[in-house]
């Protein structure tokens, strides 16, 4: 396991290049998000998704959320319902995860759907431009509390990721808001830090 600083532009750029090599080989990153540390792997690779689930002691069939740098990456993976596009373009980047239909089946998905978001974290989006979309599940044993430091995350996991991107303590706080956009009605599966409900009249 390598551990690289992820705290200033030059170090973020260097770490992102190394992260891209790890991801291309099917490896797993420990990475910072807007709230807590997460586990990043290529959501389209069975080996990467399996490795993440093993670290979390999590069942493969539960699916994993995916982080995207921008709309282009996101729409390569899911079909965003047209009636939500304006709303989402105003909200993202944000701690808002949507469940939408997958364009094609991917190992990180579940039953033809995928949970995706564009995170409100500049360094993380810079990393995603380099690596492509990554899983963004919390870096902790399944069912346990999320972790705001590298040390907490490493102590919680069943094993070690291939590369640690250390940005120091994260902000913590609520997780991303999780919204199901599959059916005709919006369903908020998990309230979080993004106030989706305030925008409901604009749908």
Walk me through the structure:
This protein has 203 residues and is an alpha/beta fold. It has a single domain (2-202), classed as DHBP synthase (Alpha-Beta Complex). It contains six helices and eleven strands. A six-stranded mixed sheet has the order 7-4-6-5-10-11, with no helix packed on it. Strands 1-9-2-3-8 form a five-stranded mixed sheet, covered by helices on one side. A hairpin with a 6-residue loop joins strand 10 (177-180) and strand 11 (187-190). Helix 1 packs parallel to helix 5. It starts with a strand and ends in a 13-residue tail after the last strand. The mean pLDDT is 93.
The CATH topology assignment is DHBP synthase
Unreliable runs: none
- Total number of helices: 6
How would you sum up the global shape?
globular
- The percent range for helix content is 25-40%
